[in-house]
Amino acid sequence: MRGTVTAVSSNGEYSFTKPNRDSITLLVGLGVEGDVHAGVTVKHRSRVAQDPTQPNLRQVHLIHEELFTEVDAEGFKVLPGDLGENITTRGIDLLGLPVGTLLHIGDDAVLEVTGLRNPCLQIDHFQNGLLKQVVGRDEAGNIVRKAGIMSVVKEGGTVRPGDPIRAELPAEPHRPLDRV
């Protein structure tokens, strides 16, 4: 599986959205250099409140740009960085990847997929009703989360828009993504 980076975003302060950048630097075991969510232990506020010693399985957040097209059809305007992602992609089925997939990005960077982003109510504060577009149920009644995936940095490097992405699947049996 292959895709392309369409945008990169980071923010050194807590805010829902993240401004786009010309490039971001991924640091092994930490995340995006200068980003508020970078670190060995969890940085998401609600998770810090539960247990600040948890490992940070959410160092780098990726969203597929195809989601923006999907929600646009329902009247929502979402651009890269608006939902707090660090890397916006096109052409790769992020939600269909198994846990442990390695994403080779650009020349050097490698991310390991840890799970699905669990969207929160802040999405509705950004645009009322958007949460229902990114979290729903399938025909069997199972929850479907579409707001991207989370990962950790295995090999550092600089990531820029236009960089290629190549997915390396882990050994079978594959474990489907769950929220992290």
From TrEMBL:
Residues 161-180 are annotated as: Disordered. PROSITE patterns: MOSC. It holds the Pfam family MOSC. One of its GO terms (molecular function) is pyridoxal phosphate binding. InterPro entries: MoCF_Sase_C, MOSC_domain, Pyrv_Knase-like_insert_dom_sf. Residues 18-168 form the MOSC domain. SUPFAM superfamilies: PK beta-barrel domain-like. Residues 163-180 have a biased composition (Basic and acidic residues). It comes from the Bacteria. Gene3D superfamilies: PK beta-barrel domain-like (2.40.33.20). This is MOSC domain-containing protein. It comes from Streptomyces malaysiensis. The lineage of its organism: Bacteria, Bacillati, Actinomycetota, Actinomycetes, Kitasatosporales.
